[in-house]
Amino acid sequence: MMELSQQEIDERYMRMAIDAALVAEENGDVPIGAVIVHEGRVIGKTYNQREQLKDPTAHAEIIALTQAATALGMWRLHGGTIYVTLEPCPMCAGALVLARLDRLVYGCPDPKAGACGSLYDIVRDGRLNHRLEVTSGVLADDCTGLLQDFFRRRRRGNDAEAGDLGQ
Asked: What is the value of pTM for the model shown?
């Protein structure tokens, strides 16, 4: 049996994260998904749930970290990789450092809130006690398209509602 390349492995898990992001969208949340893999096993797979749970901290990464810690029975997630469709924000980037994950793989950058290279680089900050290896741009077009389509539909819906109110 032929061994998969790291890129093929990353794309496989990013597709899982994209599938999870679609569930967020079905629930009225911004479509962001996250998957955590440890020693070849998925130990966390979820999606953004801020609207669904009415919780500002219910980002996909935070929920996935809780799932992964529960699966391993410890908060230190050494040996783990997280796959996220969108570059993590400062809160999530900090949580990834605190969880001691080895690696972060994300799809598209977030120029307005990204904390893993765009605005800040929390996960690779040498002043902190832990750093993650980062791979960005995995299935970036798919991840970007998912978010752009979501916000395009949302804007169209808001325009239609505003038009109804004006009549």
From this structure: 0.93
